[in-house]
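Issue 218. Parser rejects a valid record. Input:
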Amino acid sequence: MKIQSNWKLGLLVVACVSLAACGGHKKESKATTETVAKVTTVETTTVAPAKLPDSLLPFKKEKQLVLGDLDKLERSTSAHIQLNIKDKPKAKREPKISVDPVGWHNYKMPIDDSGSGKEAWLMNRGHLVGYQFSGLDNELRNLTPMTALLNTGSLSDKDSANQTAMLFYENNLADWINAHPNDWLDYKVTPIYEGDELIPRKIELQYAGIKSDGTLMKISFGTKQENIDKDGVTHVILENTSPNAKIDYATGNAEPLFAKKVETTVAQTEAVTEAVTETTVNQEEYRTVYVAKKGKSQMCIGTIKGTCRTIQIGGNVVEMTEAQAKRLGKRVIHLKKRDIDIEKEHHTIVWCSFHLIFFH
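Output the parser choked on:
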């Protein structure tokens, strides 16, 4: 009996130990499952790049150039480019554009009212997206009539510091590309017309940078013309005007603002010149001069009325009109506010005030 009780007690102890071991194994398995679930959640959390504004071209990491179609009046409508430094054109630009955008006229006009007579071409065949980005020259969809002032910053030259001109922004955007070789420039130019006018009143520029990961970069050159919108895209509106001309935007014809003043000045000058010449000729026909050496001297003395008290005429001094003397090739010397004596018997004409003129 005693041995049987011990056997039962031992069997009970073994059963309890087994149950305890099984219970511990279940707890450990539950903890491991919870840890794995937490790690999985962290690994699946990602940050998506910001969406680019709809005003930009889709980012494809390749050069894109989109030209708007000519409208019903054959006007250019827009030009939009996205490029990296490696996409800048390498071919040399043609020296002259060979196509004419609608409304463009070849006018040369005075640049101011100074009377200097300096003239310059009023209008340029202006690129929307400049050649340094697009590589396009003779493409009508990328050309529009621009005043020289709008296009180059000057009426007669180039002024790259003029912040109201295309050249300023084109040069600065080109510098931006050079300084950001791993990034992209998105650049759009739009002519702004009024109704059916052929010449745009204004030109709008739009630009922004794009990083290689597709996020937007703001670009600003610190000018008062720039306006950055809520998406971070910069806009600039430039006036297509010129201070030396009255432009008919409907047709492209133009009139110089300073032409009448210049023409009047020229006309007045010609009239005065004619009057002076006529008066001089008339005076020469009647004004008397005195020639020594019996009229053979190549020099002669003339006086203006009221300046001479005593004139003595002799055989060696000959009188004639100034016009006659000039026709004979003689040099006329006019004496003003001096007294002269023309001697009778000598070959000299004596100019008082101790100056002697000898005619040999």
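Fixed in the parser; the record now loads. Residues 17 and 23 are 10 Å apart (CA to CA).
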